[in-house]
Amino acid sequence: MELLLLSNGKATEYPGLLGWARERVQSVLARKQVKRILLIPYAVIRSDWDARALELTESLGVEAISIHHFDDPVAAINQADAIFISGGNTWRLNQLLHEYSLIVPIQRAVRERGVPYVGWSAGCNVATPSIRTTNDMPVCNAAVLPALGLFPLQINPHYLDASISGHMGETRDERLAEFCAVNPSEHVVALREASLLQISGEAIEYWSARGQDFKIFKHGEAPQEFMDTAPLAGLTPFNPKV
């Protein structure tokens, strides 16, 4: 498989959509000889889908076209050179992936044909077994459904461990601890802004444009911080990239 799971799409110090990870994304596209990107922008609610595709094209130098232009979205997946899933609202995204019957076609494209999958924010969330660790509000009447399951662990994108003065609600750490308490057999990988997990074949690598760590949450244990993927070796079928 070729997966790039990014915490976010934009970073203030790096211009352009995916600008902070541009070199890594372009490297995958070049290696896989991708001529056109199929963009799935279903998570985008208050912006234009074609504008998002154009923004991606201009940033990466490879044409991107939104899936809504195809009469048959399943056929579009089956013919895709690369699948990019945008950030936005994870609930809406996952709902439409199921309603348009795209879960299995995407799984087959990535697992069987080796089609590169690049997902940021909501697109990162749906690459995991479920959307239970999204930060988003459930804006639509959709049940918590299984997601794509391309990556075997839950991910929490946009992870932030700062405390806001005057805020009396739960911190992100407390929310993730609640998830682990309810699901004690599961781990959660928390990705800070401008960081990603890259899976290529059987190898997994972590990279942060800002040189920051990621965290792993597990019930009954204090969250631990890491800069390399060695701790994920026993939790996933992937081997740390050396």
UniProtKB/TrEMBL annotation:
Question: Which GO molecular-function terms appear in the entry?
Answer: serine-type peptidase activity
Q: Which domain of life is it from?
A: Bacteria
Any matching Pfam family: Peptidase_S51
Supply the Gene3D superfamilies for this chain. Answer: 3.40.50.880
A biological-process GO annotation: proteolysis
* Coiled coil (UniProt feature): none
Q: Which SUPFAM superfamilies match?
A: Class I glutamine amidotransferase-like (SSF52317)
| InterPro entries xrefs | Class_I_gatase-like (IPR029062), Peptidase_S51 (IPR005320)
Q: Which UniProt keywords apply?
A: Hydrolase, Protease, Serine protease
Q: Please state which protein family the record places this protein in.
A: Belongs to the peptidase S51 family.
| NCBIfam families found in the cross-reference section | PRK05282.1
Q: What is this protein called?
A: Dipeptidase PepE
Task: State the organism of origin.
Answer: Aeromonas lusitana
